[in-house]
Amino acid sequence: MVESQSPHDESRAEAERARRRAMTASLLVSFLMLVGKLTAASLTGSTAILSDAAESVIHLFATGFAGFSLWYASTPPDVEHPYGHGKVAYFASAVEGTLILAAAVGIGWMAVQDLVTGADLRQLDVGLYLIGGLTAVNFALGTYLVRVGRRTNSLVLESNGEHVLTDMWTSLGVIVGIGLVWITGIRWLDPAVGLLVAANIVWTATGLLRRSVYGLMDEADWEASSALLDELGTAVEEGLIASFHQVRHRTSGDQVWIEYHLMFPGDMPIHEAHARSHEVEDRVDALFPDEDVHVTAHLEPRQHDEAHPDEHREPTDPLREVRR
Prior knowledge:
Order of helices and strands: HHHHHHHEEHEHH
CATH superfamily of the largest domain: Cation efflux protein transmembrane domain
Strand order of the largest sheet: 1-2-3
Number of strands: 3
Structural class: mainly alpha
Oligomer: single chain
């Protein structure tokens, strides 16, 4: 007899399939971008286009690493990793940000050299057509990856999509620059555009690195913290629990790990307190409909709270418990 999947399990399975489709599309398009841009750079001799192609080389490598990370993050917890493997998403984002930053340095260096020595340009019209078509493809792919990443709570896909959109804006800047060179004949505009491309890539890279550090350091999400504490406060107001404290939560990929202590009247039977704790857990789980929520609740008698007034008190500031 085959057991039917719960709606939540079916939703997670569908999210996993969506992630795999998106990553496969990203890998295929990355190869197309690399071949197309290298061809355009070879035909035109443009530093701006070559810089754009260099960024695509980095993107192809980063996409491959992101694909591995997406697979690894989806593997179940094991003895050595009881909290699962979701943190690899932040590591992948950090690697991608570092690679983008390296590409920006290389682009800037080539642009400075061409500003000094002068650019040797040719067949700019053909190069513009090629880069224009590739830019449209990148825009469609990047938008798709970001949407799927946000819908399935995949930092790997979202970061990869932002990288693709950065590549798209880079290519768009190159199109404008090369078009101006073609129209005006001012050749130094080509390496100047290369420098602007480098600056744009640095901005994106720092954003990815900053997000990675925040994730690896388990920085609190103030919006989620406020919603969680408000829900627990509502349970107190309704008399479902007597009080609460020691609220902690962190996110790892698409998983949310939550811990808190719940207090009940000392004469309440344990089975009643346990049932109320489960009701609170269901409410908390509903706050994160798209994530896999893991709640650990510690049940205490109210008298325990009264015996330690300085250590156990209801939070008046909704974020005080998380800041401590």
